Amino acid sequence: MSRKTRRSGxxxxxxxxxxxxxxxxxxxxxxxxxxxxxxxxxxxDNWLFGLALAGIALTSYLTFTAWFGERPAFCGAGSDCDLxxxxxxxxxxGVPIAFYGFLTYALLAYLTxxxxxxxxxxxxxxxxxxxxxxxxxxxxxxxxxxxxxxxxYCLASFGIVNALLVLLLVRRPAHMPxxxxxxxxxxxxxxxxxxxxVLFLHFSGLFDPAAGPEKPHLxxxxxxxxxxxxxxxxxxxxxxxxxxxxxFEASADRLPYIECTPxxxxxxxxxxxxxxxxxxxxxxxxxxxxxxxVVSVAELARMSRFEWPPGAARKK
Length: 316
Hints:
Glutaredoxin, two-stranded antiparallel sheet, four-stranded mixed beta sheet, alpha+beta, 2 domains, de novo design (two linked rop proteins), 57% helix
């Protein structure tokens, strides 16, 4: 075989078997081609973004009404909607639960808008949507089985976040191997399970007794103090007042509490506090007698002549 023939055979072999670098370049070109085919708005993108905006509008309204102490429209006193909005599940760490919904929808709006040009944003959007839907399912179950009431606003949010999740699943960029179901689903599902479990523990009173269920004896004493005419004067900025409320855990909102500085620390005092010459916080007035500082639960029961339910006196 001549030298020229051998060189020609080598060239043909190189052409038939690409080098590793050539194979990598081929895969990159194929990926770029797939991305180009998918570039541009998907038919579902407008629906995804529109649903996220609807969620923002709904949760903004609910957050506004909660922060300003108003009732949402068509949510009269004592209605199912009011029961849900006033329940202990309506706040988390002192913030309306609707505000967390607002943050979720705002993040989804950003990610679904970004998804138009960057398919890689799909996985982050999926994680947020799965977690949001899982929390919505948990709170809806609480409404049905624990509160035994349904709120139309909560159901609307439930529908929006679940519709977003379904559309995102349909919208999956199938041309991108990294978005295969086996790689994409474990992280969102794991995050959703952890977050819902932590919420369950929180509202069970494990981390904060004030967020847990009411203890019957504390609830009964708080109601008795209110109905007997006792008054608890304090301020929101007084740490000792917060200690007094903490003694009643989840029943603190039932205390006959009067805020003496509703307009701020430097604002005018509440007329009731002025009329009763309240100068120290907290101050209790029970049966015409004045008591300052933190008063124990047992002492409040004694001073107000509260009769403990059987076995309750041993608890506090």
